[in-house]
Amino acid sequence: MNFFKLSPRDALLMVVFAAVVLLAPIWMKPFGAAYPDLLQKFAIFGLFAIGFNILFGLTGYLSFGHAAFLGIGSYTTVWTFKLLSMNPIPAVIFGTLVAGLFAVLIGFVSLRRTGIYFSILTLAFAQMCYNLAYSVLTPITNGETGLRVLRDDPMLLDKALGVVQEGSPIGSFFGINMRGYPAFYFCAVILIIGFFISLRIFRSPFGLKLRAIKSNQNRMRYTGFNTRPYLLWAFVISGMYAGMAGSMLAVTDPLAGAERMQWTASGEVVLMTILGGVGTLIGPMLGAVLIKYFENIFSAFNESALHDMFSFLPSWLETVMVTVVHPFVGEGWHLTLGSLFMVIVIFLPGGLVEGATRLFKRRKSDGVTNKNSGSEN
Amino acid sequence: MSKKVSQPNGWTRRSVLKTGLGTAAMAGAPMFFVRNAHAFTNDPSSGSTVTLGFNVPQTGAYADEGADELRAYQLAVKHLNGEGDGGMMNTMQPSSLKGNGILGKKVEYVTGDTQTKSDAARASAKRMIEKDGAIMITGGSSSGVAVAVQSLCQEAGVIFMAGLTHSNDTTGKDRRKYGFRHFFNTEMSGAALGPVLESSFGNDRTAYHLTADYTWGWSQEGSIKKYTEALGWKTNAAVRTPLGAGDFSQYITPVLNSGADVLVLNHYGKDMVNSLTQAVQFGLRDKQVNGKDFQIVVPLFSRLMAQGAGENIKGIYGSTNWNWSLTDEGSQAFVKSFGAEYGFPPSQAAHTCYVQTLLYANAIEAAGTFNPCGVIEVLEGFKFDGMGNGATEYRAEDHQCFKDVLVVQGNESPSSQFDLLKIVEVTPRAKVEYSPTMEGYAGDLGECVA
């Protein structure tokens, strides 16, 4: 099948990507991030950002409402758990499909406008979903408390097959409980598949058309292309990615809350994509990892941890250092993230990927000898 | 571009995946063994320290409570490690605490921000369990969060000592074997407030509820309705408001012309400060409806909120778990050492969190093991005194503490900036007790597996 044939360069990229993702529990150790929950978040939000990038990176349409699909995926997944089975496969499939369905509806309306108007429309839809989930739809979403799987839920498929679970319900992949490292590998495999599909889209004629829309939609129309179906497809595909990510959030932790759909969550994925590099293959993933790392690791530094960190210094200097650093960690982690974001947008508009490329180019011009071995990356 | 066939190194998706999965299995294998080697989650026996996880709201509508909780935890850790004046460790009865850590191991702690969101709270609890090796999680200032984190702890096999959570569900239909609550609940608030409201406002009243739209708000609205309607009051309307709304004017305007003569604010934290302030600004308290003075009731009160609401709080009734002005030995000892450390008296949130930490440590000492199943056994049915609430019991059936409940009123003439609540009545434990299998309250604890 042609679909699975990659150029050697892309194949290498795939292999490196897969290896990096799957070996994350080992190489993340020195960074203090090698624990299942955070690794799961890396994979899930990586997938979310990769999907978002198909829309934003390729077509240039900035959606400010992608969190809606994340939430829809989560809610659908939890309902699939409740009604059918704790197996994550049907849950992820339904989550993705239902999010896709909503993406068709929202996309169909929003894509009639471009630029800022498109952004505002998607934002409005997402905010609508959030408020509905919060208030009117409380019987379906359980409002602020969040939708949970309970032991006395029907789970028809599981009952029919005689699958019984001890204790509180948790996603179960044919007997493997979806928590800890098994759950991470489940997410990781889906992430790798998602990355592969995104790679194929980037290299396909379809992807080329999307890029053409970004560079000049009018010219494309004049040549006889109807751009709207392509845009809608891009929107739906990225919505399905978001739905899948939302699904996996619910698989690793069977709980769906409305705050997942808040505009801040939509903004977060925009930040991730820009931070990593818009329109690059690997950038959004890097951005997602960076933001989640900050959120989970930096926010946990409290004053006593800082004192430990600087304990090698003389005590007066230690106090000074702690006072200086303290506003930037713990509750102040947003401050660090904000400054980092500003620095990157100002000096590296192409995100981290641009930074890496620049570094690499400089090295290449310095040393002529290893020209060939490096160009593969 | 990708049509190059017959490349010797042309990777197919299949071989990529195969290699990938192979590597994954190799990388993952050792970790499963490590995980299974433990008899229970995060056994600290081999180390010289024991880590507790303090999961409190540092941002959002309940951030003030969270900050005070964290102060109390830090104080508790100090006292457990034998630093400071020992606080309530000296007044607790019975006590197995020695002031040399827990079972001789120095107590350390890690913190996390719940953001008053279930997702974030579970993520930070998971971090503390999976990465930092916390053996117990405690804290929180929202019942939604408490319920979510409690069930997570049950799954992880880690004990959860609930912080400030007031919804019936926490030890009601969402009770868990690994979860314990010292704080009182809305059922107790209702039972204690009922008689006081009757004697102050009479039996012919019409109430209008504004309710925070999540498990705690629903629970409190239900309890207050139950007990006021038993007095003969009518309920005009119950309107749900989103948590952290900030501006409540659109909800308060309709109250004016609704025909109700009592407004019940089922709000907490900054929400309550905002809604009460706005209700007062709209002139509700100066109004006359049905020939009676309009009244406002805030069923769950705390000094921190009273401080935020300032003048508006004067004369308003509510209930509270604990207040720093209590004169028993335990409360005095706690207020003294908290005051010495931070320069102001503790809130009820701080009190419950401090007590929970000490109770947990004490249960370990008494059980002689860190194993959660042993600790649970000690805590179930544990009777104690000298912790500020008089004689208290951890009921075994639902892990809820039973003790006297304080009915308070905003102080008309405070003697200091902290002397904001006046204790109107101490409702004895017997009056607020209820059956653990009461309708709408029954739940299933589940099992301890270790």
Instruction: Characterize the main sheet of chain B.
Output: 7 strands, mixed
Count the beta strands of chain A.
4
> Structural class of chain B, please?
alpha/beta
Structural class of chain A: mainly alpha
The residue-averaged pLDDT of chain A reads 88
Number of strands of chain B: 17
- Strand-residue proportion of chain A: under 5%
CATH architecture of the largest domain in chain B: 3-Layer(aba) Sandwich
Number of domains of chain B: 2
Helix-strand sequence of chain B: HEHEHEHEEHEHEHEHEEEHEHHHEEEEEH
Q: What's the gyration radius of chain B in Å? A: 25 Å
Do you know the CATH topology of the largest domain in chain B? Rossmann fold
Q: Please tell me the overall pLDDT of chain B.
A: 88
Q: Biggest sheet of chain B, strands in spatial order?
A: 7-6-8-11-12-16-17
Placed side by side, the strands forming the largest sheet of chain A appear as 1-4
Please outline the helices and strands.
The complex is a heterodimer of chains A (about 375) and B (about 450).
Chain A: H1 8-22, H2 24-27, H3 36-59, H4 67-83, H5 88-110, H6 115-134, H7 138-141, E1 147-148, H8 156-161, E2 172-173, E3 176-177, H9 180-203, H10 205-222, H11 227-252, E4 255-256, H12 263-276, H13 283-297, H14 303-309, H15 315-325, H16 333-347, H17 351-366, H18 371-374
Antiparallel strand pairs in A: 1-4, 2-3
Chain B: H1 13-37, E1 49-56, H2 63-80, E2 106-113, H3 118-130, E3 136-139, H4 143-156, E4 159-162, E5 179-181, H5 186-201, E6 206-212, H6 215-231, E7 234-241, H7 249-256, E8 262-266, H8 269-281, E9 288-289, E10 292-293, E11 295-300, H9 303-309, E12 317-320, H10 329-342, H11 348-367, H12 372-379, E13 383-384, E14 392-394, E15 401-402, E16 405-410, E17 421-427, H13 429-432
Helix pairs in contact in B: 2-11, 3-4, 5-6, 8-9, 11-12
What does the model show?
The complex is a heterodimer of chains A (377) and B (450). By secondary structure, chain A is mainly α. Chain A has a domain at 2-262. In chain A, 70% of the residues lie in helices and 2% in strands. Chain A has 18 helices and 4 strands. In chain A, strands 1-4 form a two-stranded antiparallel ribbon. Chain A is globular. In chain B, 39% of the residues lie in helices and 18% in strands. Chain B has helices at 13-37, 63-80, 118-130, 143-156, 186-201, 215-231, 249-256, 269-281, 303-309, 329-342, 348-367, 372-379, 429-432; strands spanning 49-56, 106-113, 136-139, 159-162, 179-181, 206-212, 234-241, 262-266, 288-289, 292-293, 295-300, 317-320, 383-384, 392-394, 401-402, 405-410, 421-427. At the A-B interface, helix 1, helix 3 and helix 9 of A face helix 1, strand 2, helix 3 and helix 4 of B.
